[in-house]
What we know:
The chain is of the alpha/beta class. It is built from 10 helices and 9 strands.
Amino acid sequence: MRSLIDIAELSVEEIDKLLDTANDIIANPEKYAHKCQGKKLATLFFEPSTRTRLSFEAAMYELGGVCLGFSAAQSSSASKGESVADTSKVVSCYADIIAMRHPKEGAPLVASMNATIPVINAGDGGHNHPTQTLADLLTIKREKGRLNNLTVGFCGDLKFGRTVHSLITALRRYENVKFVLISPNELRLPTYVRESLKKDNFEIVETTDLESVMPELDILYMTRVQGERFFNEEEYLRLRDSYILTPEKLANAKPDMSILHPLPRVNEISVAIDNDSRACYFKQVLNGKYMRMALILMLLGVE
Length: 303
Ligand code: NCD
């Protein structure tokens, strides 16, 4: 039995296989419509979500399975003091697979050590978000035709943005990927991620100025400043509008640069960009559903 807590647990070959399955689902959805008949997905969401939870549920329904779960800690027994370990043991009696989101880093790992069914990390605090990375990888592959030879700019909250940490972990395994890190000093990539890139001789550029690096980028990954993870409201208010992508700022971007964002967007991408052919963030949402379908099939061992 296998869980997915960190994207690095999937080999490059397994990621290729998930991408192939997702592309096949897109081409032949009817082939997959009954693959998970009789199976149940439990979505245990201790933190707000729109996309991730609904995407997991839509994925399971489109595979012919069903879903149960909760969407807020207050509506679960966590509010009575139940531990994640106990909740996981209990839910193992009802479901075949769990998708868990939790504000505490490591909670899905604890769940996977106690559940008797696979656990998928649907976002743990400011740490990781491996299934968003699967959505991001399918989007990059479909838009650019490759996952190597890319210059990828990450912009915004690189400190608390868990999707950034997971995507870097995934992309560093492909050849000739260059990382450009654009953030205010207060929201730089955590030292542990930065040092591990440096140790392995990755070429990284760090800057506070988005426009100066724009012309180099093949991918621009925008992020929301993660207000809920700040200890200080004043600091959040000071930093939240650090980067707002407008059509003017794209003037020097490559004509085929892809703009990604895990969403939700607050104001870091102007709606005036939504109709630009480079805007991929709504396609990314759809790709997330297909990759979650592929992942559920893999973890449940469905052929
Ligand atoms: C992201 C998350 O939850 O980390 N959202 C998502 O799952 N698509 C990004 C965010 O909340 O900013």
